[in-house]
Amino acid sequence: MLLGCIADDSTGATDLAAVLVQEGMRTVQTIGVPAPGTDPGEVDALVVALKSRSIPAAEAVRQSLDALRYLQERGARQILFKYCSTFDSTPEGNIGPVAEALMEALGAEQTIVCPAYPTLQRSIFRGHLFVGDRLLNESGMEKHPLNPMTDADLVRVMAAQSRRKVGLIRYDTVHQGPDAVRRRMAELAVDGIAHLVTDVTDDADLRILGEAAAELKLVTGGSGIALGLPENFRREGLLGRHAAGALPEVNGLEAVLAGSCSVATRGQVADFKSRCPAFRLDPQTLADGDAQIEAALAFAAEHMPSGPVLLYATAEPAEVAAAQAVLGRERAGELVERAMGLVAKGLVERGVRRLVVAGGETSGSVMAALEVSALRIGEKIDPGVPATVSIGAEPLALALKSGNFGTPDFLIKAFGAMPGGRP
Fold first, then answer.
1. What is the pLDDT of residue 86?
2. Are the C-beta atoms of residues 370 and 229 closer than 8 Å to each other?
3. Which of 81, 280, 317, 421 is the one with CA 20 to 30 A from 270?
4. Over the stretch 296-319, which tens digit does the pLDDT of each residue have?
5. What is the four-CA torsion angle of 162, 163, 165, 169, rounded to 10 degrees?
6. Do 24 and 9 form a contact (C-beta atoms < 8 A)?
7. In the 8-state DSSP scheme, what is residue 245?
8. Which value, in Å, is the radius of gyration of the alpha carbons in the chain?
9. What CATH architecture applies to the domain 253-417?
10. Burial level of 325, CB count in 10 A (0-12/13-18/19+)?
11. Residue 377 CA: distances (Å) to CA of 28, 134, 290, 411
């Protein structure tokens, strides 16, 4: 294994794995940390998907260090800590604490901090993160139900959750190439700067940063930072170029589970509802027991023989705020994620084998409920979202979508991109 990756949620992990496959690395994604000694097979990169984005920082650190130990056992030469391209994190966690724990375990003095991926409308200019043409805190992320992002200045945000110093490598240095970036890294190291926020205005900048990071023990960022890492191993003669592996066909009933309340997912849910049957799960109703879960499964069983169905908790910000006011933020989220896991399990028991899931937290809950331990990564459906098939005795075709990703018709389009089809 050349590159060992730790992702803080399942959709981010598949996003990263898709980039590595695109760049010619044989890649497998695991759901959670594999048992010690588990052999992932002949792979160039392994992505360990955790569910650590929104949990207490101390627990996120523990899980991430467990993942690191497994990757080190498998011989990983470099570690990548992958977090969301919108830097989802409160001042109390989790990106800074996890990054610093990994640095300490690896003996790393510096690391790159780069959630940018211009292809996916994420860019950094003078240390400020943009979503499209809007600053992060004006993009809708300021209303995120779990990790509201109210500051676009990544140097300031990272400094609020880190013990080590944070600095910036500006666009004018990046545009001079890898050698200029390395020189600037060395200058900042003299001043004790450990976390290097890096400007990125197009994908070419990510490849420059990837080359500049060849000697770093730890790299942190979104999936885009992985664009430039595989070529470092090729220059050393350690990596060939492998085509994306063909996925096995999976046939069965089809369903969509959507828990994300992002702007993109809200639009995708509206598009799907205009085409196919849909059932909404409400957290305040879920608080009264499991009757709504049973109703959702009965609805799905009635409609799935005719085509895919959508079971969703996606809601407008005002509706989310109203539920949180009654239940509390954590309780409202827990109720939805528990329900999504139980619904997913019930759907598979009723013959679903092709499943689209929208939302990082939702995907983590669904994978845990279905006891999916690893995924084969196939071709991308949309930027950031590949087709996948679970590894195991009874495979499932899966598309795990970050809340912010995908075209408006993604939830229906994804089924056409999955191997196999309806029975």
1. 84
2. no
3. 421
4. 999 999 999 999 999 999 999 899
5. -20
6. no
7. P
8. 21
9. 3-Layer(aba) Sandwich (3.40)
10. exposed
11. 7, 32, 34, 19
The domain defined by 3-235 carries CATH number 3.20.20.100: no
Residue 418 and residue 45: Cα distance in Å, rounded?
Answer: 23
* d(C-alpha 334, C-alpha 146), whole Å: 11
| Residue-wise pLDDT tens digits, 170-220 | 999 999 999 999 999 999 999 999 999 999 999 999 999 999 999 999 999
d(CA 200, CA 116): 6
The residue ranges of DSSP E strands in 161-290, in sequence order, are 165-169, 193-198, 218-221, 253-258, 278-280
**pLDDT computed for residue 35 by the predictor:** 83
pLDDT at 244: 63
Where are the domains positioned within the chain?
3-235, 253-417
Give the relative orientation of helices 329-349 and 317-327 as an angle to the nearest 10 degrees: 110
Q: pTM of this prediction?
A: 0.81
Digit-coded pLDDT (tens) for 21-77 = 989 999 999 999 998 777 888 899 999 999 898 889 999 999 999 999 999 999 999
Q: At what angle do helices 10-22 and 360-369 cross, to 10 degrees?
A: 100
Question: How far is residue 51 from each of residues 8, 11, 68, 98, 211, measured CA to CA in Å?
Answer: 6, 10, 15, 13, 29
In a 13 Å sphere around the CA of 148, the CA atoms on its Cβ side amount to 9
